[in-house]
Amino acid sequence: MIAYRKLYSKDIDDYYDYLNQLDTETDFMMFEPKERELKVGREKIAGWLKNANKNGDFLLVATDNRKIIGHISAEKGKVNRTAHSAYIVLGVLKDYRGRGIGTEFFKRLDVWAQENRIVRLELSVATNNDAAIHLYQKNGFEVEGRKVKTMLVKGQYRDEYIMAKIREIF
């Protein structure tokens, strides 16, 4: 059974292992396989998590029998002029895609956004990542623009869409 919960500092090792597995399963995340180990390391992930929790950012993981199988984060703007917006990153392990995890993540994100008076939710996605684009559109995101040749994956340049969801505050 899939459970959803906050991400805590005690989860660093499991979260780091999950991220490394995700990097090997998809070409759509930022890091190539093994690159995270060389350039980031557990200490930086721990520091990021500590700052994110201190700043009130949104961090949620999906677990299956305590194994982390997916995550979503939303980092709030840090200055007054951008405090109403948040940048989203989402990932789900290959064997768990298509099971409604992304949809559940977005339901919970919307509650957090409402509680934190977030008006703008934004993300970037590879233009050839049809499944993710469909998920984002299904959850109210619209394409705002295209960034050209933002990533080099297996010798090929890729473009990204900038997508956003504008929310009303109640």
Main features:
170 residues; alpha+beta; 7-stranded mixed beta sheet; 5 helices; 7 strands; 34% helix; globular
Question: In words, what does this structure look like?
Answer:
With 170 residues, the protein is an alpha+beta fold. It has five helices and seven strands. It has helices at residues 12-25, 35-39, 41-55, 101-115, 130-138, and strands spanning 2-6, 58-64, 67-76, 85-92, 120-126, 142-153, 156-166. The N and C termini lie far apart (34 Å).
**Strands in their spatial order, largest beta sheet:** 1-2-3-4-5-7-6
- The overall strand count is 7
User: Would you tell me the structural class of the helices and strands?
Assistant: alpha+beta
Distance between the termini: 34 Å
Percent helix range? 25-40%
Q: Count every helix, treating DSSP H or I runs of 4 or more residues as helices.
A: 5
Indicate the proportion of strand residues: 35-45%
Largest sheet: 7 strands, mixed
Low-pLDDT ranges: none
Please compute the radius of gyration using only Cα atoms. Answer: 16 Å
Succession of helices and strands: EHHHEEEHEHEE
In one word, what is the shape? globular
Mean pLDDT rating = 92
Task: Provide the fold topology.
Elements: E1 2-6, H1 12-25, H2 35-39, H3 41-55, E2 58-64, E3 67-76, E4 85-92, H4 101-115, E5 120-126, H5 130-138, E6 142-153, E7 156-166
Q: Outline of this structure?
A:
By secondary structure, the chain is an alpha+beta fold. Helices cover 34% and strands 35% of the residues.
